């Protein structure tokens, strides 16, 4: 009997023919593997029998050998992540198309592993690998050394935190360092305060306020630019008060304009200490020119009211006795110039003759030949306690001696004793001039 290759064969034989087997193998092809069968044809009595037996299985997965080779070659997966444009290495995956029609010889060849050629992995030539290897092999960068500490800044900080007991040692050290220390002292100004500024007295020295104040006062005129910056309205109240007090002991041409501006400050303490500091600048040409402009502004009714009021305040706080007739005439002006002129007259004379010009004119005609010291001594004996206290405070400013009195209240019966104590001091001051 024939082998069953014809079209009219038995249906069972048709299913077991080699062609049908090949078609079934092609349909069974998957991505993962191929199963190899051995087919035998055996002749029976009345029919041909085809027997099929699986003899091998070929895997189509990418060979693991390529991955091991890639690992041995130090293909770092981190580099693949950092360089996505290069893509993964080509491991030579096999073609997954349907195989050609199989014959007995091809089946036998697929069984022999030595004849199957595994795809060779292709190593990717990545220039980044060599760069990274070189960077890894190099030594770590040297530690950047810290900058040496600023010796002047440390000294300024020590001065700002020191108390009165350390001033004797720190003062000479600061003077030896010279001018480069001044900007650092200004940044720490005024430092640790040794007293309550609310009770600051006009005759309080800089070395009684803080160590930073004492050092700036010791540098004298060289501290002028730094004190001028500290007097600006942008600084805190205690900074400006201390700067005005130090400016009285370190007169400088740079301080005249900032101090005059401080006279117009709304805070009376700052304005008063600025006026006292200006009194120490009497020999400065800049101050003389400024006072001349203020006199013109006070008598010029067309001048801005702000400057006219500032002029009246300045003459009173600077204790300018020669400005009394100008202030008397300013009483006829509108507010707030008239009020500023009256306040200045009370400071200068320790008296109050009212808001009208006539009483003040009579007083001025009688007292203009006498000095301001005589006005104050006579003002100790008047009815108003406030004006008696004002006269005593002005005498303290003139002489620098409060006679050991710890309160500003002055009784009327104390006037003879106070006059007897202050007259010799005032005479000595006049002789010294």
TrEMBL record:
Residues 80-96 have a biased composition (Low complexity). It comes from the Bacteria. Signal peptide: none annotated. Gene3D superfamilies: Leucine-rich Repeat Variant (1.25.10.10). Residues 1-26, 80-147 are annotated as: Disordered. This is General secretion pathway protein E. It comes from Sandaracinus amylolyticus.
